[in-house]
Amino acid sequence: MKKKVIIIGAGIAGLSAAVYAQRSGFDVTLIESHSIVGGNCTSWKRKGYLFEGAVHWLTGSSPAIAGFNQMWRETGALNDDVPIHLYNPFRAVEHDGQILYIYRDIEKTAEQLRKVSPKDIPMINRLVKDIRTASKLTVPLTDVKGVKMNNPQKMGLKTALSMMPVLPVMNKFGKMSVGEYKKQFEHPGIRQLLSVVPDDYNSIALFMTLATLNIGDGGYPEGGSIPMVQRMSKTFTDMGGKLLLNTRVDKVNIKDGRTTGVTLADGGTQLEADAVIVTQETVAALDMLFETPPKDAWLKELRDTARHAVCTFIGIGVRAELPDITIPEWELETPITYAGQSVSHISFNSYRRYAPEGGTALTAIFLTDTYDFWKKAKDSGRYEEEKQALADQVSRALCQKYPQCEGKIEVIDVATPLTYERYTGAYHGSWMGVMLPGDNMAKTYLGHCESVEGLFFAGHRLIPPGGLPTALQSGRTAAQLVCRQFDTVFQ
To answer: Measuring CA to CA, how many Å separate 1 from each of 4, 98, 274, 469, 479?
Structure first.
């Protein structure tokens, strides 16, 4: 008889674990509280406008990053029939009437910047050299020690040697914030152009993004988030896997030191299982799914050190044709103020094909932790009022820059950290972690519970700072851990 595995959460990690475990011969039930799969990997429609909420570019969309590309294909997220768009330029900034671009080719970016700021040529040349070095980094696909494999993945000597020149670059920039790195450039437009991620983040995030683009990866799968997770879901169910939507788990059942299944939040229905993989955001899961949380030291460390990437997301549907994909970031005439903060620059992702004819769907993301502000607004009854105030400022800024939008905004949708918390169950409304200067870039967590037999974890928290590719990888790892426990060959 097949061993039964229950997986809690049908985000990227849950879908990955489900596909691999089902393919490896287990009887898998995937449980999702929402009406659709995807978790944070999602998009949504309002009045005919589609707002892409997750995939703006994808690591592993190209075979150039072989390990992740292999996993995306094995889980069904990508295949030969899915077009990958390599939008170029990747980013644009308007400064003093001049447009600066980040192109996928780092040398093309540098050629432009040298003309803009001759004083910065030494730093620009160094940037090119470091990006070229970082572009040599290979992300190998590795396996859990002791698991039986039908096709084992091993890091060969050639791969190991190719990574050696990258280590000094990683070490140097791993100790520096993005803000500290940007200060080395004199030209303010260049500093703004390099604001790919927030200033307090580890500068490795900036360099690896630019390196990913430079090797031809970081593409956008046609259709974005929803079609991608639907392909993963279909891969799972076509193999006979069971998917339960609109179903919430109340608790993981534990008896005599081992998991026996789960209890649903429908009045007490119990589902038996030989193993449970928890892919709900780990910090929240520890609070919500256990009468007594597991005592493992690694889980305590994860909880104590978790940082939260939190954002406020604004989607705008306007009956006007604006530039598609690359709208240059610009300095606002009047800064946007909310949550005690001031936003002086704004940028949008822009999609005409996600809008009714003659329209454009726009999305903007403010990457600051404003959870406490929104929580207080909710508790005091000012939540909708504060959302509207922010929406009014953003729409006003858009119309000042593009007067053709005046009177033609048909929908504006604000998703706060509380929105993310409500729909995904993520602690603090976070959808990723944050890696700061000096953090261990190789840090990973076990994924299996040593104090409770048959209990496993997956999700972006297991491989900081997180993101879709690491969630994907953690799901694969969890399936391998289950295979190892039951002496089963991982497929």
So the answer is: 9, 68, 12, 33, 18
Which amino acid appears at position 415 of this protein?
A
Query: What are the distances in angstroms from CA 285 to CA 111, 248, 299?
Result: 49, 12, 11
The two beta strands, 270-272 and 349-351, are: unpaired
DSSP 75-122: TTS--TTS-EE--SS-EEEEETTEEEEE-SSHHHHHHHHHHH-GGGHH
C-alpha distances (whole Å) from 163 to each of 156, 159, 230, 264, 435 are 11, 7, 35, 47, 21
Which conformational region is residue 30 in: left (phi greater than 0), alpha (psi within -120 to 50 degrees), or beta? beta
**101-107: which pairs have CB atoms within 8 A and are 24 or more residues apart?**
101/193, 102/193, 102/196, 102/210, 102/213, 104/213, 104/214, 104/216, 104/218, 105/214, 106/131, 106/132, 106/135, 106/210, 106/213, 106/214
Quote the CA–CA distance of 228 and 293 in Å, as a whole number.
Answer: 33
Reading the block at residue 414, the tokens are: 């604000």
pLDDT in tens, 300-336: 999 999 999 999 999 999 999 998 888 999 999 999 9
Range list of β-strands (E), 348-447 = 349-351, 360-366, 409-415
Neighbours of 217 (CB within 10 A): 23
Q: What is the percent of the chain with per-residue pLDDT over 90, rounded to a whole number?
A: 91
